[in-house]
Automatic annotation (TrEMBL):
This protein's name: Uncharacterized protein
Amino acid sequence: MSAVEVEHEVTLWLVDDIPARMFYAGRRWRVTDMPTRLRDSIWRAGSSGGGGLYGWRFQGTDEAGESYVFDVYRGEDDWHVHHAYA
């Protein structure tokens, strides 16, 4: 598994406060596993500002069947992809 360092905005749709689908990098992604909540401590090492961040890790599969594992976090106004694992 290789990690890709990214920090791009993403549109994330939640169902019952859990990620269900997203639009990222010009593609539509379905969440195809059970998302794992990432707590504040995971972001401290790689983020400026630190406190109060939370996010999710989940597998997303696009319309062509390509899958990645995404780490996404909630910023002040929107969601961001922090890592994508192929």
